[in-house]
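OP here, attaching both records as promised.
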Amino acid sequence: MSEDTPWLDDHQQRVWRLWLEVTNGLPVLLNRELATDSELSLQDFEVLVFLSETEDHSMRVVALADAMHWERSRLSHQLTRMEKRGLLFRESCCTDGRGQLVRLSDSGWEAVVAAAPGHAGLVRRVVFGGLNMDHLEELEQILGHISATMAAEREALEG
């Protein structure tokens, strides 16, 4: 089939279905592991990881939403749930007073540190298990290409 045909060819269809199986199934598996080991959801863990990787364990809410590719309303609801559980807190941004900072609490730090080993172990087994260095480099290149293409599409849509 040519580029102007709206359908995927058989090989593209098989690869696409595998992609969907992985991208839909992996979060379910990661969620189960996190819920069992730490009572965190994958979304909780994602937010905690982003905050834990900053120098002062805080980010502007807008920057966090952008970094996670989440809608601000989705992030706001997630932060509210996490704030109620004591994993983080929000405060006014001291530089301009208009924005909000979200900051990791001590409990949030302890939760991400406790959850990380089990999460990393599962990722290592499921995603990287059985891949040699050549596979890993190829996967990195492929995902890098897809990520760059997605960024260009987002930019074009935002105009």
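Record two, same layout:
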Amino acid sequence: MPKLPRYLKELDQMLADLLLESEAMLLSQLDGFLAGILVCPELIMPGEWLPKVWGHEEVMPAFENADEAQKLIDLIMQHYNTLISDLQHRQYQPLFDIDTRNDDILWEMWIEGFDQAVKIRPDTWQSIYEDRDEDAEVAIGTLLTLAEIAEREQSIKLEAEVVDQLTASAPDLIANCVDKLHASRISKQSPLPGSSEQPAYGKVGRNAPCPCGSGKKYKKCCSLN
């Protein structure tokens, strides 16, 4: 993984610590997940997707105090808003882990996160095929094929040589496909929620609806953890 800005180092560490007691995503997986959320043809609000980051649909994992829970949410949303800006300026670069033994790019974790985002609204992605957006069709098809390869799906009907070619070129293909899907979304006048200048999601107030989607106020839900 390239040198990370300070906020991503903090987020990486918090997610790694959280993984010890939950099914939280790691940073590369989160990056793919957020990219999938942002290029989805339909807007998905944080209250729906945030709980999937830490692997609990109802409540957040237990934290030492409410400030720690808030810090995690703020860091996730900071990256979310950073990706919005990167996509708008066509500067998005996936965060891939690197195998330090041989410098191999480990793209599989990223594609797992992207696939999790697609599964939130699987029917929504069908609109790409209905609109006959050829570039977007190829892009989503490629990413889903890579997800199958990463999961070693036995049902995948590709020759071993093709699988090897896709695997070798996956890092470059992923960045290109995300760019095409973002362009497709923009062409349909479905702008991203917010910008780098105006965050789509800020600090949660105590009386605000809880971002986990429970419908309760934050002070009576996740802040209690």
